[in-house]
Every structure is written in C-alpha cells, then in structure tokens.
Amino acid sequence: MPEHIGNHPRGRTEAALFFAALVPGIWQMFRGEGIGFGRGFEMATAARSLAETGTFGDPFSPFLTGPTAAIPPLYPLFLAALIKVFRQPASAVFVASFASVVINAFVASALPRLSAVFYGAALPGIFAGLLWMFSVQLMPQWDVSYTVSGIILFCLLISNAADRKTGGLRQYAAGVTAGLLALLNPLALLICALWTGFLFQHRRPGLDYALRTAAKLVFAAALCVLPWLWRNYLLWHAVVVRTNFGMTVYVSNNDCAQSSISRSGDNGCFQAYHPVGSESEAALLRKLGEVEYDRLRTADALRWIRDNPVRFQELTRDRIVEFWFPENVVSRY
C-alpha cells in the first residue's frame, strides 16, 4: 500500500480531503433544503417515540402501529439519545446534521486508502473523494452516511484481516463492524460478504485460515445482532431482522404505482398503499402485527407482478434509468 501520493504523504492528502469535504456539508446544513424530521421520516419518528415513551415503535406518525422492526434500530437509537441529551428538537437536529457532515467528510478522506487496497494506488480514491464531497446529499434523518462509512471501514479492516501476517484482532473488529452495519442497514452485509469472498479468492490464504476468519466474523457479528433478534422473537415469535419488505414492494407494484416515490406521492398512490399515509393500512398493520402484515403484503405484491408482467417490466425499466439519472425532486413522502 503506497504511503505517498506524488510528493505528499498520503495522510496529508487524506486530511486535506477531510477538511475540504466539511465545506459543502456545512453549506448544505445551513441551507437546510431536504433536511426533514417530520412525517414520512420513519427513523426520526421512531427515535422520538423511543425518547418520549421508551418504546421503539410507531414509526408511521400520526398513526399508532405499536412496536416496530420496519426500520433498523441503531440510527434511531442515536437520534433518540440526541433528543434526550439536548431536549430541544432544534438542537438535536443541529447536532445530528453536523455529525452527518463529519461522517461524510470521513468517507471522502478514506477513499484514497480504500483505493490503495483495491488498485494499489491512491489516485483513483482522490478523484472519488472529490466526486463524493460535491455530490453527496446531507440526509441526517436517515442512516445512509453512517452505512457508507461503515462499509468502507469494514473493507479496510477485512483487507488486513484476510492476510495471515496482519489478521488477529482485526478479524473480530471487522465482525463487530459487520454486526453494527446489520443494525444500520442489513443490505450492507451483501457488500461485506462479496468483498470478503473476493479477498479470499484473490489472496488465497488457505482454506483453514479462510474458515477460521469467517467463523470469527460471523461470531462477532452475531453477538451484535442477537439482542435485536431476541427482542423481535419475543414480540412476534419469529426471527426477523427487518419487516418492511412487504410494505415496500406492495406500494411499488400495484395498479396506480409509478416509477418513483415522488410520482406515486403526486397521484396519491403512495398515501393509499403505505401505512405512513393510509389509516386503513396502519390499522391492518396494527391488527396483524408487522411480521404477518409483511407476509400478506409480500404475497399481494408478488400476485400483482404475476398478473401484470408488462407493467412490472415497464416500472423496472424506468427505475433502472432513474437510478442512474434521477429527477431533481424532494418527495413529500
């Protein structure tokens, strides 16, 4: 891993990226556009519930739907702690926003180091850091900044843990990071698994070492996630990490669904099909419980997809295009 970029130490370049990335983040913070903690921001709503009542639930304000696993717990716990400590909502929002600015700056500064692991050179990471700082949107109401930084940290830790000479405690540290990522955004584990598999295939440390490393990763990650799984089992008698798949796929695949959440919000479809906008959906969710509601709406969505293959293909095509060329809109939901 190179220690210099041009004539400058890598650490100096990383520090410059970090402080430079603070500037656009702080500008977004005081500009205030797109920073919301009201209705439709489930993590912030669950955080308020936790801070005010001690219950991790009711994310679909103003409707009361009870305990929830529709959102991962770690970031709402962080927001709830800010609400309890600072008491004034404006102060909690300010601290959450500034913390996201700092985390985004860390991502920009860490990309050269990650690039050195991937490519053996830090220069691509410098360009990536510049692109990141001028394109990332400040979203302190969601976990995204922390999830991205956690993925980068995991990749850096496991890149050393996969080496027989530098493994050791880094294997457990990588496992803990993976466990925390599962509590931030479980889908991030897919990237962790793919990256780990690539490293072992590329470096070939030996099957015995690879299996021991994998066991340590799984063990450390499981210790982090186990309390959340146990809590959900006690509530719903099911082992679940998250329960929002059904409501998400259901609101995205129906007779009035559009390719984006903003369009579905404009025509009233989102409000009619999602518990955050529909009193009847919220009542059904409360009656069935999240696990059964998730199963029901998953089955309904899959049935609609089978019955409407052409429309489903159109929606999928449009969503792929809009992923790469998104509209410049701020959705109300």
Would you mind describing this structure in some detail?
The protein has 333 residues and is mainly alpha-helical. The chain has 15 helices and 2 strands. The longest helix is centred in the N-terminal third of the chain and has 31 residues, at 89-119. The chain is globular, with a radius of gyration of 22 Å. It starts with a strand and ends in a 9-residue tail after the last helix.
Largest sheet: 2 strands, antiparallel
Taking the alpha carbons of the first and last residues, their distance comes to 45 Å
Shape: globular
Strand content: under 5%
The assigned structural class equals mainly alpha
Labels describing this entry:
333 residues, mainly alpha, two-stranded antiparallel ribbon, 15 helices, globular
Compose a concise summary of this entry.
This protein has 15 helices and two strands. By secondary structure, the protein is an all-alpha fold.
